[in-house]
Amino acid sequence: MNEQLQPLKKPTRAGKGRTGTQDDIVYAHIFDAILEQRLAPGTKLSEEALGEIFGVSRTIIRRALSRLAHEGVVLLRPNRGAVVASPSVDEARQIFFARRLVERAITELAVQHASDAQLAELRQMVSDERDCFARGDRGAGIRLSGEFHLKLAEAAKNAPLISFQRSLISQTSLIIAQYESGSRSHCSYDEHNELIDAIAARDTDLAVRLMLHHMDHIDSKLNLEEDSASGDLHAVFSHIVARKKPRR
Predict the structure, then answer these.
(1) Which of 87, 124, 149, 203 could join 91 via S-S bond, C-beta 3.0 to 4.6 A?
(2) Contacts with 123 (C-beta within 8 Å, 6 or more apart), sequence order
(3) In which band, very low, low, confident or very high, does the pLDDT at 20 lie, cut at 50, 70 and 90?
């Protein structure tokens, strides 16, 4: 097995490739697949299959899966392997309750600390999100929607909240993939823009109201019944496999 995994050049919003250690790269791809709702809750994460897909050893795969398990999006089962977490109804309610508390705190702090440069970056993310949905790239749009909330946490300038928010965002994505009803409409970029305006105006009360309304909107789309996404690892990471094939 090839231990020298090269940085996987997955385009990001800023056009940069994936960099870091081997397990950093594997972790980032799996995290994005969850954030984009391409990995179904309950999917078995075979170390052998993932090692083949990414061209690394099982040790590297185990390290990446351990990090994801620490964030609550992967379940490590003794003697049975890892699976993508599949939150129960009660767990989903607890996660959304925690998310509301964290989003309120982040919003209050962002009003105090967000710089003009950070607000401009948030506006660009909303524009990119809108473009993704307009061209039918729903997965990328969903990922950008989640990254918007992570970037807002960075603007709040509170390291523990950033770490907690990262876990909550990915767990929320699993819940939406598992339980969202109807047309599975995305996180509203119009609501994101209104939130940025309130933060830019340094209006804490309005910003908090808009954030809680935004969370109500997401919550209202859950019926706690439907499953979606995919359980086929090779299909989810087909872009990785295709990239590894030699050109003729």
Answers:
(1) 87
(2) 193, 196
(3) confident
Phi/psi-derived region of residue 227, left when phi > 0, alpha when psi is between -120 and 50, beta in every other case: beta
pLDDT at residue 182, rounded to an integer: 57
Is the Cα dihedral 95, 179, 38, 4 positive or negative? positive
Distance separating alpha carbons of residues 41 and 89, to the nearest angstrom: 13
Domain with residues 22-87+227-244, CATH architecture: Orthogonal Bundle (1.10)
| 54 token code pair | 């990414």
pLDDT at 202 over 80: yes
Residue extents of the structural domains in the chain = 22-87+227-244, 89-220
Residues 6+ apart with CB under 8 A from 75: 69, 82, 83, 84, 85, 86
- The CATH fold assigned to 89-220 is Four Helix Bundle (Hemerythrin (Met), subunit A) (1.20.120)
- Asked if 12 and 67 count as a contact pair (C-beta separation under 8 A), the reply is no
Q: Determine the distance from the C-alpha atom of residue 215 to the mean position of all C-alpha atoms in its chain, rounded to a whole number.
A: 16
Q: Beta strand 44-45 with 74-77: parallel, antiparallel or unpaired? A: unpaired
Please say whether the beta carbons of 20 and 64 come within 8 A. no
Contacts of 186 (CB under 8 A, 6+ apart): 133, 138, 141, 142, 145
Global pTM reads 0.75
